Amino acid sequence: MRLAVIIPTIGRKAVAAQLLRHLEQQTRLPDEVIVSAPDESHVERQLSQAFPTSYLLGRKGLCAQRNYALESALGRFDVITFFDDDFVPGDDYLRIVATGFEEHPDWAVIHGKVLRDGVQGPGLDFTEGMAVLRSAGARHSIDRHVTNDLAAYGCNMSMRANQIGSLRFDERLPLYGWQEDFDFTSQLRRHGRIVRLSALVGVHLGVKSGRTSGLRFGYSQISNPIYLVKKRTMPAWFAARLMGRNIAANLVKSVRPEPYIDRRGRLKGNLLAAFHVMQGRIEPEHVLKL
Known about the structure:
The protein is α/β, with parallel strands linked by helices. The protein folds into two domains: about 5-205, Spore Coat Polysaccharide Biosynthesis Protein SpsA, Chain A (Alpha-Beta Complex), CATH 3.90.550; about 215-285, no CATH class. It has eight helices and nine strands. It has helices at about 15-25, 60-75, 95-105, 125-135, 180-185, 215-230, 235-255, 265-280, and strands at about 5-10, 30-35, 55, 80-85, 85-90, 105-115, 145-150, 155-160, 195-205. It is globular. The mean pLDDT is about 95.
């Protein structure tokens, strides 16, 4: 079973380089790592003795970068694993993924347990992420709990390459994408189960550089779920809960916003997207004009 790791990156040269070095510690090494970035300025080329690394340059936007790497990997690998450039996997991550697919032919997509998600706070640096992994210790390696999910969390997700076919990430979800992982992996449910493994762990640093503006992200928080409901890849109840939670958080916290989140920008984007939806305009790509 050949396994490729795909890492889309933008504006985080040093962070992506740390991840590449960290992957050399995997107990089951990747057969290739593919880094996808807009241009040379976003990457710090690594010469690894542990696995081949290729760099694909020329496309910008998370979905476009994911697709560029997919086109390179399909037909050459059995398993495709996507890592965000600021995700720090446990050292046995890829071994567990490969074993899971080998032993469970009914599994289509696997993702892991995020021990700590820096997106929910000011973010973590690599040293802090490693400390979280060490403190988790062996208790997760012996935990075999399997949970069925509607879709996978894009910071760490793996899938059988032969089930992807012509499916691609939707490039109408530009820039940061947001919910592109739900859209893509939910469509793989027709091939089998989407599972989260508690023994499969990592830390999402939530690095703030390279992310879209508050206004743009707030617009995507409304327009993207509505678009996916119309596309029929996201249940309406899930989209309603997601949007309601985000609007409520942005409204309440805009009074005294966290220094690391532009709550007022997000709220403004929420309201603008809602206004457009009421006009019948469902245009995720409108964020490119903001």
